[in-house]
Amino acid sequence: MRLETYIDQGTGREPADIVLKGGHFYDLVTGELVQSDIAICGDRIVGTGEAYRGQTEIDISGQIVVPGFIDTHLHIESSLVTPHEFDRCVLPYGVTTAICDPHEIANVIGTEGIQFFLDSSLETIMDIRVQLSSCVPATHLETAGADLPIERLLPFRHRPKVIGLAEFMNFPGVIHKDPVCMAKLEAFQGGHIDGHAPLLSGLGLNGYLSAGIRTEHECTTAEEAMEKIRKGMHILVREGSVSKDLHALMPIITERLSPHLALCTDDRNPLDIAEEGHLDFIIRTAIAHGVEPLAIYRAASISAARAFGLKDRGLIAPGWRADLVVVDNLANCKAQMVFSAGRLVNDELFATRKPVEPVGLDSVKARIVKAADFSVPARQEEQPVIGVLPGKIITEHRRFRLPSSGNQSTVDLANDIIRVAVIERHGKNGNHANGFVQGFGLKKGAIASTVGHDSHNICVVGVSEEDMALAANRLGEIRGGFVVVEDGKVTGEIALPVAGLMSLEPYETVRDILHELRKAAYALGTTLTEPFLQVAFLPLPVIPHLKISDKGMVDVDKFALIG
Q1: Which one of 184, 250, 515, 545 has the fewest CB atoms closer than 10 angstroms to its CB?
Q2: 257-303: per-residue pLDDT in tens?
Q3: What secondary structure letter does DSSP report for 335?
Q4: How far apart are CA 460 and CA 158, in angstroms?
Q5: Whose CA is closest to 375, among 561, 563, 534?
Q6: SS3 category, 129
Q7: What are phi and psi of 174, to 5 degrees?
Q8: Distances (CA, A) of 494 to 103, 173, 330, 491, 516
Q9: Model pTM?
Q10: Helix, strand, coil % over all residues of the chain, rounded to 5
């Protein structure tokens, strides 16, 4: 579109391409509902506050227009569908920009996964922006499928859709000046560096922020968030399928603090999206619990855009990108119509996208396992048990004296303690670690997954070793995914052949399969709302405590993994 055309349509010399008439728009500067035409030329708004003629005129009487929503941190892989299907699934809910970290696929297949996301982002209707994965591998405590030192990230730095460096999860490495961490941080000084520092505070937080890190999505209490806001961080309020921090953080979602807030989902699957929504769910939930509409709508758009340097979006004003959501009312936040860069979102628009060839279709290279591989020698003393915290990805390091049979430790169903194992699946060393987990609720059977944050090896939980072996081996046969086994029979499964993380099916098919898969998991007795993503997060290291030493360092000596 020529600049002259924007000016001619904005001044009314020419009819605008599209005019929304008869409604109000929400002014996120003043908090006013303004009755006004909205004129659109190409990809941008060119007129408000005046009457306009349009080549296409759309009556939105009785409705309100708000800026498109921005998900500031997510892993599209956790939606279990490809970027194209994520686009088609989420954009109708009003999410016009998604800032993703392809951390999951990068940990499986490296730069090929990042390239897949960049290629996809050039075709999607939604504006997908990419953060370059900073922690591949995520930890030295587990075997990943790839290694991305700074030399492999730099060729992507100036790609059109790249914002900066993704969540820097290795905060101990930052504080202790690990050379690999330092090389990445040095390379991105002056650019955007995303944070990830759960529970970090005091001197350790100061050191972490001194590396130029500005955003944080891991806050789980208002107190934690306030310290980080006071120290200059932009807090991304998270509500996903597993990590649900919205209610805990509602006290900070105020008009005064809204310039320092944004919203994100991190990990959310199509079933939850279908049942609840996406960022629109966060908005209406917050308002229903007393949050000021201006505060939450700012966090969903203009504050998010400013935090990530997206200077062209987040307001309804002339010259701004025409990412618009027409809602029935502010409190309900139900999208009636969505515009992405001035284009009305519908099936015809999605049909214009070019497909992108899938990658990582043969990434599951795990060895065949048998029931005996899941045995754990009996101990007289207490032994480590991972403690699940519902609604959170962080877990607790607990200790129990477990019952035994012969010379082997066994499950303790009375205390909700079952087996858990991680099986290396990248074909590198065949490692296998066993342990126990509390809080899953299983009374029988097994659940297995190739989605295992962050290295994405096979993770399997279960009561029966035989069922665990069947579930793990079945994952190899379907090229990755989720499997539920009960009494020696597969009762539910979904194939995720794209790096063992994403389906090749439409999101509607994935949603329907997940519904049946969840039923199969509930039949085993689990009480968790999202048992599959909870399995996926179990391989994360357990940090039983964080404390600052006299030298201002984080004490991480008590990291513990299963096994």
Answers
A1: 545
A2: 999 999 999 999 888 999 999 999 999 999 999 999 999 999 999 99
A3: E
A4: 39
A5: 563
A6: strand
A7: -65, -50
A8: 22, 36, 37, 11, 10
A9: 0.92
A10: 30, 25, 45
- CA gap 166, 184 in Å, rounded: 11
3-class state of residue 245 by DSSP:
coil
Tokens of 201: 């505070």
Mean pLDDT of the chain: 93
The residue among 530, 373, 526 whose CA lies nearest residue 441 is: 526
383-387 and 64-67: which strand pairing? unpaired
CB 6 within 8 A of CB 41: yes
Distance CA 560, CA 393 (A): 15
The answer to whether residues 340 and 323 touch, using CB atoms and an 8 Å cutoff, is yes
364-380: pLDDT as tens digits: 999 999 999 999 999 98
| CA pair distance 13, 424, nearest whole angstrom | 65
Q: Both tokens of residue 180? A: 């690999």
Confidence at 548, pLDDT banded by 50, 70, 90: very low
Nearest to 249 by CA among 280, 201, 277, 286: 286
| DSSP 8-state secondary structure symbol assigned to residue 9 | H
**CA 37 centroid distance within chain:** 36
